[in-house]
Design brief:
2 strands; mainly alpha; 254 residues; single chain; disordered N terminus; two-stranded antiparallel ribbon
């Protein structure tokens, strides 16, 4: 038995200190103390808890990825040609839409949309975060290229978006007519789409205004309840209690 002030060959501290504070794994002449055993149990519990947290996080990550799963299973797009890939994705989306399934998963899509509620909220959140980050960095919120002006979009994306909005507007006017249903105005710049039942406020709050509203009309196959009016007749109808002043001035036929 070594004295307290002598050093052991197998340890680097005094025997009395080693017996009290050494770990179980250390090669020592003395048995591990209760403090050492308790310390080892504590760190074992900590490592077990950390492993459990990692497993739970990984399982939840898998579920989130499954919500936005792609139509392929090997993790990589099998088609490398851009044109063929675009055609493949278009046909795949059309098949999902025809089946009433969400684009991100196989659950039923919400009414009037291409995604279920969970996938739609996930996509919206990702889009908001991406746009906010790009705006702070001075990038186009759509493509991510540098923006040299105070606009949020670059010139190419602005022109492309304007052309897209114009196509939706032209499609709506081609279907409902290219002249005012009240006064016969045919100048395209003066025309707009009107809600026949005067329920435009609630409808716009649900589906958006402007180009978003035109896009909704086209994607929902031009529903009933709309007509083309000029801005004067539309404003007059709103201010006159739902009846255009042109029609209010016409005497009723007995």
């Amino acid at each position: 038995m070594l004295l307290g002030y002598q050093r052991s060959i197998a340890i680097t501290s005094r025997p009395c200190q080693s017996a009290l504070y050494s770990s179980i794994d250390r090669s020592s002449d003395q048995d591990a103390s209760e403090i050492a055993r308790a310390s080892d149990r504590f760190f074992t519990m900590f490592r077990t808890a950390r492993s459990s947290i990692t497993i739970v996080w990984f399982s939840r990550t898998i579920r989130v990825v499954a919500c936005v799963a792609k139509p392929w299973n090997n993790g990589a797009m099998p088609i490398k040609d851009p044109e063929k890939r675009r055609d493949y994705m278009r046909s795949w989306r059309q098949a999902r839409t025809a089946a009433g399934q969400c684009w991100g998963c196989q659950r039923p899509a919400a009414g009037g949309t291409n995604r279920c509620e969970e996938c739609a909220e996930l996509v919206r959140q990702q889009s908001r975060e991406r746009r906010s980050k790009r705006k702070v960095q001075g990038q186009c919120i759509i493509c991510g290229n540098d923006v040299r002006t105070s606009r949020s979009c670059c010139a190419d994306c602005t022109a492309r978006q304007a052309n897209r909005n114009r196509r939706f507007r032209d499609a709506v006017l081609d279907h409902y007519g290219r002249e005012c249903a009240c006064c016969g105005e045919s100048q395209v710049l003066f025309l707009c789409l009107d809600h026949v039942e005067n329920d435009g406020a609630a409808h716009r709050k649900e589906h958006g205004t402007g180009s978003k509203f035109m896009e909704w009309v086209v994607k929902n196959n031009y529903p009933q309840g709309f007509q083309v009016l000029c801005w004067n007749c539309n404003a007059g109808k709103h201010l006159n209690g739902g009846i255009c002043p042109h029609l209010a001035a016409i005497p009723a036929v007995s």
